[in-house]
Hints:
Layout: H1 3-16, H2 29-36, H3 40-52, E1 56-59, E2 63-66, H4 71-75, H5 78-83, H6 88-109, H7 114-128, H8 134-150, H9 155-178, H10 182-199, H11 202-227
Antiparallel strand pairs: 1-2
Helix pairs in contact: 1-3, 6-9, 6-10, 6-11, 7-8, 7-10, 8-9, 10-11
Amino acid sequence: MSLTDRAIAQIRELIQTGELAPGAKLPAEAQLAAELGLGRNLLREAVKALEAARVLEVRHGSGTYVTSLEPRLLLEGVSDAVALLRGDDIIEVTEVRRVFEPAATAFAATRVTPADLAVLREHLDAMRASLDDVEQLNFHDAAFHRAVVAATGNTTMTILLDGIANLTVRARVWRGLVDANVAGRTVAEHEAILRALVAGDAVLAHAAALMHVTTTEIWLREHIPAEHPETS
Length: 232
């Protein structure tokens, strides 16, 4: 572990133990450096790193503060980070999606509301109307999945899965361009997910989501490495 990493860990520990609560102002630089046994330059490096991670906020003329530490703030960079992955990393991210999205869909089946179902129906209807429009099909496909996970009421889960799913949007575009039959299959898979949610059947919802994500993963394994090595 580098000296900077150790300094970051020390400040994180102050936050994790509650000594520095969300919204709290950090002690003056000289005081904090002395308390942690750090050089001031090293402390500044640690603060910059934690600012980039949205753990700290530097307010010029006021001081340095702990952010709200809300999941949406801390995790909002996930999508940008995942979007930089290339090649085989896409497959790994899809594997992560295969683990988490069916579980989230099953969870949603126990919490989904009539309002949530109405939103899902709207996106599904739009998908049916967009079978010849790849971009619109993909837009409503992604929106459908976001709405499913949002129905769990779990903000952290929603943000994480949205970040992962964003990477697969381009892949779904390629899939639509290469495979002339994919649009109909995609709609049918989403219909199965919606039926399970309407029934409030968590087991069926898990199975329907798993089938959908798995068919996407299989296609990616067959096409992305060979035909799209430049994927990012």
